[in-house]
Every structure is written in C-alpha cells, then in structure tokens.
Amino acid sequence: MTTTTTPPPPGDPTATGPLTPTDHRAFAFLGQVNSRLRQCLCTLARYGVALRRREPARARVLLDTVRPWPLYKGGQFLFDLMEWEDLMVDGDPPPLMPAERILAACSLPVQWLAATTAEAPTATKLIPGQRTAAALDLPLRLLAATARAAFQGAAQDLTDLLGTPAPQDGTGDDTGHATAPDAEGADDELPPLEAGFYLYEDIVVGALVVLGPLLADHAPTATAPPA
Hints:
Layout: H1 21-54, H2 56-66, H3 70-81, H4 84-89, H5 99-117, H6 130-162, H7 199-217
C-alpha cells in the first residue's frame, strides 16, 4: 500500500525551503525598513516637486545653497551607488508618509547634530580640571540632548493620553515647534513623483521644506534673517 504525503499549502512561506521561521521574520523586518525608506523618500520627492512647480525661484536658491556642501555631494553619491531611484520608482507609488512622522524620526538625530556642532563655552583662564571638563563636554551635551528628547516625548505621550486635543491652527504644534507646511494644501494634493534627472534634487528640496522648521529650531541664537 502506497501512502502519499499531503504537500504543505503554498501560501505558507515557512513550510518549504531551507529558510527557518527566524529567517522569514528577519526578512519581514528588513522588508518593512525598505518599505518605510521608500515611502519617506517618495514623500520628500513629492514635496520637492510641489515646491519646484509652485516656487521655482525659491527651489533654485535652496539647491544653489546646498550644492557646494559635502553632505549634498555625499548624498548624491550614495543615492546613485545604492540605486535608490530604482527602489522609489519600482512598483505602484507608496502612500504618503505624514510630515509629522518624518519630523519625529529626524528630531533626535538633529538634536545630536546640534549638540555636537554647538560652540563650546571658552574658559577665560586655566582652572583645575579644565581639560577633563572639555573632554567630557561633548558626551555630556549628547546625553543632555537625548535626555531632553526622551523627556519631551514622554510628556507629549502623557498629554496625548490624558489631555483633550487642542485645536490646531496649522502654524505649530503643542510642543512649541513649528510644523512642516503642506506644499500644496492637503497631502493628497501633492503632485506625483517625477523620476529622472530631478529626482535627487526633489528629495533634497522636499527635505528642506519638511525639516525646515525643525532645523530652524536649532539654529544658532545669533542667526537673523536678512533684512
């Protein structure tokens, strides 16, 4: 008598093949990272397209300002090397990522940058322990920035849980920081992605639009807009 074994259902990816359930879960996480990165990049690019169409002079000045900077050039190199354009344009367009989520994700890295690049106070005379204090200054500033971000996040979470939502006027949030303006009204009115020559530039312009309020919050105190 011959017995047959019922094959596993084809819809279960862990039922066949050499990969373990842990492998599949690991790939599921990495796939989520790719999806969120694609969603973020495409959203920033669409903000850039909107500004380039609506305010071409401003978009041109923004790009002319950042083009000489190593961060811009390094970003262009990584964008081409990692073939992020293929990631962005392959398949159906992803849903827009809320600007508030992009701001929240970038808040702590921006605070770290602000802490590391802020001018350290200079001592007028040599005092005991000055060199040790100077060596510890940067780590302490980073720790302070991290603690401040954690405290603000916890306070906001408690406010969201216990408080009554306050009406929003579109100019700021209840943390005192300005929020990113919509490029063309509601998010669903943003123009579609434009692949090709302008794609990296659109991402940069979109990042400056969305992250502009966050970056401005950490500007040096002596910074003043031109008259």
